[in-house]
Amino acid sequence: MFVLFEEAGKYLGGRVLSEAEASAQVELDTGKRVKVKGANIVLRFEKPAPAELIGEARALAATMDLDLAWEFASEGEFGFADLASDYFSDKPTLAQQAAALFALFEAPHYFRRAGKGRFKKAPAEILQQALAAIEKKKVVQAQIVEWAGQLGEGICPQPIREQLYKILFKPDKNAPEYKAVVDASRATQRPPLELLERAGAIDSPYQFHWRRFLFENFPKGTGFPALSAPAIVDDLPLADDVQAFSIDDSQTTEIDDALSVQGLGSGTVTVGIHIAAPGLALTPGSAIDQVARARMSTVYMPGHKITMLPDDVVSTYTLLEGGDRPAVSLYARFDEATLELQSTETKLERVPIVANLRHDQLDAVVTQPWLEDAAFTNGDTPEAAAKLRAPLSFLFRLAKQLKAQREVVRGKPENFNRPDYNFRLVGNDGEPNGSEQVQITTRQRGAPLDLIVSEAMILANSSWGGWLGELGVPGLYRSQASLAPGIKVRMGTRALPHAGLGVKSYAWSTSPLRRYTDLVNQWQIIAAARHGKTAALAAPFKPKDADLFSILSGFDAAYATYNAYQGGMERFWTLKYLEQQGITELEATAIKDIPNGALVRADTLPLVFPVAGQQERGARLRVKLGEIDEIALDVHGTVLERLDAPKADVAAEEEGGDEEEEEVAGPIAIAVDLTDSEAAPENTPA
């Protein structure tokens, strides 16, 4: 005897070997023996063989009209044999009974299961909804097939183009656009990114990187809502005898900081560090604050930037030359001969800004000899710089002293052996399109104007950080426990030492127009300036304030993302420079071992890339460049020759200080998974 039975949602057939009261031992066609509950057996028969019966029944079930079967079915609960009698004949054959069973079982939108072999037809309104959903799914599946075919032919359908970045990086895996990409990638055996690039979905490598960044970080665009900058209502005193000047690049519009020098020749010199004061007008929770907090920082990239604050707001508080500008000022008094720091004082005031000096226009003029020897001449010195020669000379002398003092605390000198690279896109006005001619120039780190500004800012950030700590006012600090390998710079709300800089504490406070941490710290500093020892009670953010921790974590994440994008875009334009200049070989220095090769740093460009073959660290090499991939930001090299003699002892790794080692770009990580399961059968309810 044979039986047809249900097992784990499937119907199987087999020969009965033995049978007890509530179960049977059944042998399947495969030879496997299973124990089957009696309640799961739905048909018993002598012939034909189970496989023959099941094959005939399934073919017959495929021809059944489910709408007609639903009409014939009883209103109450019924068995499959009952339906077979109504649909086929009064005395249905074994195959017809099995066909009715299979049809009922596999059409849950028409018939609800009510037990083993028992069913109940679905209500008419539910059935119509299910059928409509199935029809809709068929239409969608047909669309998926059409789109996948077009992608395979090198054509990108518009809906896929419009959702490109969502498909690649934050996909809805049930969306037809996503499924079409997966199906086309499988059919053509091409990686999804290559498939889409060949189909023209990516306008250009530059646009790919730019729009991906916007999609992930500025999904609503980079524009600002209509906002007006509130006026500073404080009756601020005018700084006495101060002639302040800023030092920035020509592209800088957010002029956060300026310097002044008083008392030259008197024995005591007062250095003023004047910071733009949006914190005097903006308040936590205001509309402008919400915009700044959402962005956390200005985003920089070659030829373009996305500002933290609207241009109108920036222009209201920036330290533009030619007027008295509201500022939070730190006055540091030094012995003119020994440069010993005697005292510091913080004031809220209006500061006359007499000049906005620019690095790129003055670096060749304001040199170390020009600053250290009053008789030295250096071509045509701009009038603004000539008038400020004495203050600049003192500031340079002071900067060298401050740096030397920090290096004593650090335990070793800071490493400035690599230049800073400046990128200029020729003819660029506004958002680049990726085709601009790029110029890359260098400025050696630690150049006099750089040193003057950086040491003044370190002095201000460390002084204000320590002052807030003494008053018990929390702030947003950067700290580093030591210079030991693996000890990184961290952010926190307590005044802790920064070993990399060699200071007791360091709170970013000098760029409130560009960094949200600095604006937050400025609010705390303003409270300290106004209330002194009771500032902790009046400051906007109190100790252990949950909101302060939220800002810290949000800033940390955003700042890392923005820096990574800036680095990626600088790498893009460096690769573009290689192409535009026809550079196929570079001189480079090996900096790190990697599996099957080494990382090298180009000697004259901001580019780190891998070469094949192990290389001695510090070795100077001539390298032939391979094919450039502007999407992956990738290029590999082959060593042509070594340019220096092998060393007996490999030097210790150069210090990284507060910087992270450059990452080498690799394949773009996308979220398209080609192992996603195939689309569900068309007759499955949505």
TrEMBL record:
Signal peptide: none annotated. Pfam families: RNB. GO terms for molecular function: RNA binding; RNA nuclease activity. One of its GO terms (cellular component) is cytosol. SUPFAM superfamilies: Nucleic acid-binding proteins (SSF50249). GO terms for biological process: mRNA catabolic process. It comes from the Bacteria. Residues 235-531 form the RNB domain. This is Putative ribonuclease. The lineage of its organism: Bacteria, Pseudomonadati, Pseudomonadota, Betaproteobacteria, Burkholderiales.
